[in-house]
Amino acid sequence: MRRRKILVPQPRSRFVKIKCPDCGNVQVTFSHASTEVKCHACGRTLVKPRGGKAEILAEIVEYLR
Ligand SMILES: [Zn+2]
Q: Ligand 1: distance of its center to the CA of 4 in Å?
C-alpha cells in the first residue's frame, strides 16, 4: 500500500539561468525544454529542443535547483 509519493531525482534536468549573447538579457529556463525558448527581450532563439535533450545556444550563467 502506497502512503506517499516518492520523488525520483533527475539530476540532469533542471533550471538554468541563461544570458542572451545578443542583448545580454538574463532569463531562467528549463534545461530540457521541449519547445524552443526565445529571448524575452530580442527574440533570439536561446534553447532548441533535440530529442529529449535541449541544446542551449546561450551563455549559462548559473544552474538552479
Ligand atoms: Zn536577447
A: 43
Q: Rounded to two decimals, what is the model's pTM?
A: 0.74
Tell me the DSSP string of the chain: ---S--PPP-TT--EEEEE-TTT--EEEEETT-SS-EE-TTT--EEEEEETTEEEE-SEEEEEE-
pLDDT digits (tens, 9 = 90+) for 6-54: 766 555 668 999 999 999 999 999 888 889 999 999 999 999 998 877 8
The alpha carbon of 8 and the centre of ligand 1 are apart by a number of angstroms equal to 34
Residue 54 Cα to ligand 1 midpoint, Å, equals 18
